[in-house]
Automatic annotation (TrEMBL):
Any GO MF annotation of the entry: iron-sulfur cluster binding
Membrane topology label: Multi-pass membrane protein
The protein's name in its UniProt record: Adenylate/guanylate cyclase domain-containing protein
Domain 2Fe-2S ferredoxin-type, first and last residues per copy: 1-95
GO biological-process terms attached to the record: cAMP biosynthetic process; intracellular signal transduction
Length: 300
């Protein structure tokens, strides 16, 4: 029976039914296991590259920790996983930095691929507003704005990924798999955000001598890498990948198009007839080759 550690070594053993960790340690293989092999720290975790059928099922202890950490099926705890045939694995915790990262994790799914709708929004000309007004007022108005539009995101089953100055990135589909429902929620949110802005603009006109905000919103649907990213003291679930960048570029395209909401063709194909559409564009997106078909969604 062979246990191949990718880019490290291969261990041959006749101890069928022992755990990966026990076999490694009996062969003098340095395999991280901070808690002593009791399924409490997860630092012995490995990625199974092949031979998954030669592994025993998860123990109760491994199931508990895997669920808490959000591990997919191919990530196993070496201290709990029994081996009955040839396998190929890769250690996931190598050094002290990896150990500290493992301890800092929270109970979320880690490094999964997911199809989601990504919404980017941005206030037009906010820099000019901030230059004309007191710092307190700028922060107050921005928080008032984010409260209003953020409520619409949460109401429509979205997740607020991050705030970037006066911009916002949101995800739809973290707890939903139906593309139609995901895209419907995202576009419904965009329309609701524009309506909330109308209410805020009434306040601005009265309190700030006729000031008025306009926002551009871009939405795209596609596969992203979803995971908890950041420093152990400050990290959160976020999405990365080319489709995130494309959604951002669509939001940027609203400026040149003088549109309030633009969606990609990937979003449009999952929507039914309850939305009203305006112009159709063959747009060149910054940093992307070729042209992309974008649709304008009307707010009324």
């Amino acid at each position: 029976m062979k246990i191949e550690y990718l880019n490290e070594c291969t261990i041959e053993s006749s101890e069928s039914g022992d755990t990966i960790l026990a076999i490694a340690l009996s062969s003098s293989k340095n395999h991280t296991h901070e808690c002593g092999g009791h399924a409490r720290c997860s630092t012995c975790r490995v990625l199974v590259l092949s031979g998954e059928e030669n592994l025993g099922p998860r123990t109760t202890e491994e199931k508990t920790l895997a669920e808490a950490k959000g591990f997919p099926s191919e990530i196993r705890l070496a201290c709990q996983t029994k081996v009955y045939g040839d396998i190929k694995i890769r250690r996931l915790v190598i050094d002290r930095d990896d150990i500290e990262t493992a301890y800092g994790e929270r109970g979320v799914e880690r490094g999964s691929e997911r199809k989601v709708a990504i919404l980017f929004s941005d206030i037009r000309g906010f820099t000019n507003f901030s230059e004309r007004n007191l710092a307190y007022d700028v922060v107050h108005i921005l928080n008032r704005y984010f409260k209003k539009v953020g409520d619409t995101v949460l109401k429509n089953h979205g997740y607020i990924d991050k705030f970037m100055g006066d911009g916002m990135m949101c995800l739809f589909g973290l707890n939903e798999t139906d593309p139609k429902k995901i895209c419907h929620d995202a576009v419904t949110t965009a329309i609701a955000m524009q309506r909330e802005l109308s209410t805020l603009n009434e306040y601005l006109k009265q309190q700030f001598f006729g000031e008025e905000f306009k926002i551009g919103i871009g939405i795209h649907f596609g596969e992203v890498i979803l995971g908890e990213i950041g420093h152990p003291e400050k990290h959160q679930v976020t999405a990365i990948g080319d489709n995130v960048n494309q959604a951002s570029r669509i939001e940027t395209a609203t400026k040149k198009a003088k549109a309030y909401i633009l969606i990609s063709e990937e979003v449009k194909e999952h929507l039914s007839g309850q939305f009203q559409y305006g112009r159709t564009f063959q747009a060149k997106l910054k940093g992307k080759s070729g042209h992309y078909r974008l649709r304008e969604v009307m707010c009324n």
